[in-house]
Prior knowledge:
The complex is a heterodimer. Chain A is of the alpha+beta class. Chain A has 15 helices and 15 strands.
Amino acid sequence: MDYETVxxxxxxxxxxxxxxxxxxxxNQFGDKPNTNICPVCTGQPGVLPVTNKKAVELAIKTxxxxxxxxxxxxxxxxxxxxxxxxxxxxxxxxYELPLATKGHLEIEVDGVKRKIGITRVHLEEDAGKLVHQxxxxxxxxxxxxxxxxxxxxxxxxxxxxxDLRSPREAAVYTETLANLLRYLAVTDxxxxxxxxxxxxxxxxxxxxxxxxxxxxxxxxxxxxxxIEKALLAEEKRHxxxxxxxxxITQETRFFDDVTETTTGMRGKEYAHDYxxxxxxxxxPVEPPRTWVAEIKATIGxxxxxxxxxxxGLSVAGEAAQLLVNDKPLADFLDAAVKLGAxxxxxxxxxxxxxxxxxxxxxxxxxxxNFPPAELAELLTLIEKGxxxxxxxxxxxxxxxxxxxxxxxxxxxxxxxxxSDEGELLKIAQEVVKSNPKQVEQYKGGKEAVMMFLVGQxxxxxKGRANPEAATRLLKQALG
Amino acid sequence: xxxxxxxVARLARLGLTEAEKKLFADQLAAILDxxxxxQKLDTETVPPTAHAIPxxxxxxxxxxxxxxxxxxxxxxxxxxxxxxxxxxxxxxx
Lengths: 479, 93
């Protein structure tokens, strides 16, 4: 039987605020464990949480970019469960009245555009971090150590409709969403560091069937690559169970990145019963329309708008997409173009040699002392004929490696093209003299030999000859 | 109206004796009866409310300040290791 896969995603993003969601502890990572904690976020009796305005602002900004309706009134709720990383034994979240609802995000999968519904955007507080002892992960650990620094930091949850139809679509959706969030500067969206997390609900149903099948929730997806892998594994498992006439049990499953399989949680599974009720210590958030309008005005150019603009500057669609997906690269292009460089040329260098260098050396462009002005300078030197393309690549490499200015590298190395045609003609004559056999072949009608002779010119000049001038002068020397 | 005390106790991770179960079942039944009497009120003209306090938008500027009560909070933990709270095995398996 043919099955159709149905996927919905819950994406959690850590918001870039200075302080926590409901108290003024610093919202920062890498500090000594349990130093950014206070009576409010550790749930001491008698404390009063107060909502962080900036967190609300960032969530509204996201909601607007996702075409959501910002609800006139939203309420925080207590979600009760017991886990050592949750000191209050409850998480302040939103339930019946979230901050925003009913939006969509357009994604493009292999050239096909799809509109994915957004059910809701809401705010909550994050839990702490556990360090397991006696095993690498929670299963099999003898004990665990709890660090509450992350407890109470602002978390935004974005829930999609079950509109995704393949693991690949789910991966593209998450990447598109993460990129949008980076453009909005609401989170740094790094899955490997946990600032963006993704839980996936997946079910299969016979093709043509309207009713959803039984779903499972896949957790522990820790990288963008893992989304597709985890869902492919779970999709396969569902298909195997269903095609053998079996039934899927609704449960939470953990993805193992090493074995690329999912496993159900062993031990007793309690049905979720979170006993939600409105958080009595927090009053409703009713964002005034003027405030929402102000926030809307802070939304800059969005990724898809930027892509359209790049295409308008004659950058190829695929290249434009690659650049837009990597905001620092796209920013670099804009800066270089502002300095007079041509967008398609800048795009080629960025996607080609510069990206290759960064990948090979595991460096970020921003970490190299190579501002857009340097690339603009390099491109000007090529355009003026001072540098050949080949030499320019060498200059680029040196600049990326040493952080020295392009001008200085070119001046110090004498790598500029030989513009003195008299000098070039002399070299051409030398080449003709020392390759009598090839000259004979050329004169006999084998025009392809010219390539060899030009190559000899390049060798003699260490690549400093302009290929066009070399060809012209060789022909002159051949008489 | 009666309530499933065993279920509620398990959700709250409370171990109750048989006598406590009886006591709390009676008390909870009285609370539910009170709620049931409130249900009888005509609220047709009263707008739904999600909160008891007639206030909204109590927001705090996003400013971080140093944490001064750290060691007092840590003192609550029965076992501290590497400045973290040590807890027993979370999942039996």
